[in-house]
Amino acid sequence: MPKQSRLHMEEQLKNRNGPPGKVNEVRSCFQPKAITFANSSHYCSLQAQADEQRIALLLTVAGPQVIERFNTFIFDNEDDKNNFDKVMKKFDQQCTSKKNKTFEWYIFRSHTQRADELFDSFSTDLRLKAQTLVFLAALRVSAWACSRSCPSVCTCTRERSCAVFCDRASLPRVLRDFPCGASAINLDKNNIRFLSEKAFGTLPALRSLSLNHNNISFITPGAFKGLPHLTELKLAHNEYIKYLHTRTFTGLKRLLKLDLSNCNLLNIPDRIFIAVTALQELALWQNHFRRIPGAVRGTESLTRLYLERNRIEAVAYNSLQGLGNLKYLNLQDNRIGVIHDKGFKDCVELEYLYLNDNLLNKLPQFAFKGLRLLKMLNLGGNTLVNVSSTWFSDLGELEVLYLDRNTISHIDEGAFENLTSLISLHLNSNNLTSLPLAVFQPVYFIGRLYVFRNPWECDCKMEWLKEWMDNYELVRDIPCASPSSVAGMDLGEVLFQSAGGACLDPVEQNETVSTPSPTEWTRSTTEDRFSNLISKLLSPKLYQDTGNITEIFRNVSDQSGVNLSAAANVQLHPNNTHHHIVFPVLLLLFYNV
User: Fold this and answer.
1) How far is Cα 481 from Cα 4, in angstroms, rounded to an integer?
2) Exposed, middle or buried by CB within 10 Å (0-12, 13-18, 19+), for 7?
3) pLDDT, tens digit (0-9, with 9 covering 90-100), for 212-245
4) Residue 170, by phi and psi: left (phi above 0), alpha (psi -120 to 50) or beta?
5) Separation of alpha carbons 591 and 570, rounded Å
6) Cα separation values, 195 from 47, 175, 217, Å
7) What pLDDT is recorded for position 317?
8) What φ, ψ does residue 248 adopt, rounded to 5°?
């Protein structure tokens, strides 16, 4: 290349990203990472240490220039000085833009030995230039080293925190040559049957390990040693495990999520999680537990617990002892028939509770006492008959309540009175015939009310619900089962009659004709209404006020438009001798319609 062109290119490269900076400054910045990444085995041992030890080892190996720079760092708080990641971030900030990387690579690659230059001099000069580029290469080590050491049957990503995918590879055993810098390993759907002690060697950067859908039958105690930073472990759908040793998860102090679902487990040792002090999410669904495993007791860090589809028969007073931070508990689809009255006493932070599809036919008087933060409660699919007014007295934050698919026929007055945050209530598929307003008072608003598939008796006790339906349009599909005059109709279509401001119940029909003509229907319904009205008029209670009776009778009219004002002159008196006169007059009027 001509000298003039080369000088022009060098000038352009210098101006591209700023001045190259001094070699000593570059070395003092980049040497820590260069040392860390240059030797993979040393890097692995460094990563396995505690943060303070890693920082001390790094500074000792890196030299006085790095220590001097480290001492100038200003942290947000004193504890950050002992945080390895934050220390490395400080080095990154110090080193950013102090070296024109493109220019330095160009200088290094274009450097040639001059005719009058001794080889030793050329070699020394080249080595010094190479030292300025160590970190540039180190930045790439984390990406290409992972793929370079990737097992042949696996696929590895090229990101700095690489992921290793060895799923569906028909592996009979765990590989031993995973990249040291791997952050995630997927071994799903292989034929792995056995995990030996320290089965994965030392992988200090590993955060996630998945072994779902294998044939694992035994896990040697200490199998996961060498994975100090593992936060997620998946062992679901290994149907031959059945048994776990107390020290199975030894060394996993940072584990946050553990999945042991569908492993045919009958029980697990009570102290199996004693060393897993950070565990937050535990999935144990679809096993064969007959009781809530004692291992979960006292796991204070636990926030989510999945126990659905087991064979659990009861929630004892100490089953959930010490779970003060639990927010989500799923016990659905078990065989729970008994809940102790203090079964949930320690779960004061609980927000979501699933008890649906069990064998509950009753609950303790204060079953959910103290669960003041509960937002969702599912009691559907049980055999509950009554809803007590005390069950939900503490649930002021409850937003969704499922009572569907039970055999509920009665709800105590005021059962929902403290549910001031309720948005959705599911009462469908029960044996309810009536839903008095007193059940909800003083709740004034429910976002959604589901009451279909109940044998509703559409009498005046349901009039408030019809009005609520018409005003808010938030509930539909309430077919009436009785009285026969409105059977099969939707509650929203029923027209409630009133007399003197009092609601009149639809009456039973006596017709045997399956499909009456419009005229017959009008006559029969009118007869039913008059029969009902007569019974009300002749009741002893109404005899006490003759004036009011007359006024009520005067204002009655048929829906079909037939004016009944002719009956206005009929007076009723306490004297029983007039009874035989009233009936013929009314019946004559009716049959002349």
Assistant:
1) 100
2) exposed
3) 999 999 999 999 999 999 999 999 999 999 889 9
4) left
5) 17
6) 24, 11, 9
7) 94
8) -60, -40
Supply the pLDDT for residue 514: 36
Compute CA 230 distance to the chain's CA centroid, rounded to the nearest angstrom: 23
Q: 């994965």: which residue's tokens?
A: 200
* 269: phi then psi, degrees, rounded to nearest 5: -60, 145
Going from the C-alpha of 17 to that of each of 83, 97, 129, 287, the distances in angstroms are 31, 7, 18, 60
Residues of the chain with pLDDT under 50: 5-7, 9-10, 12-28, 30-41, 97-98, 135-136, 138-144, 509-593
pLDDT for 266 equals 94
pLDDT at 497: 81
Cα-based distances in Å from 266 to 242, 287, 526? 6, 7, 67
Q: Are strands 163-165 and 155-156 parallel, antiparallel or unpaired?
A: antiparallel
The amino acid sitting at 248 is T
- Per-residue burial over 39-65, b if 16 or more Cβ lie within 10 Å, else e, is eeeebbebbbbeeeebbebbbeebeee
Q: Which helix (H) or strand (E) is 467 found in, with range?
A: helix 463-472
Burial 107-137 (b: 16+ CB within 10 A, else e): beeeeeeeeeeeeeeeeeeeeebeebbbbbe
Q: What is the pLDDT of residue 512?
A: 34
Are the CB atoms for 295 and 321 separated by under 8 Å?
no
The position carrying tokens 């059945």 is: 242
Contact between 566 and 556 under an 8 Å Cβ cutoff? The reply is: no
Q: Could you read off the pLDDT of 188-219 as tens digits, one per residue?
A: 999 999 999 999 999 999 999 999 999 999 99
Q: Would you state the torsion angle of the CA atoms of residues 513, 515, 518, 524, taken in this order, to the nearest 10 degrees?
A: 30
- Placement of tokens 């339906």 in the chain: 469
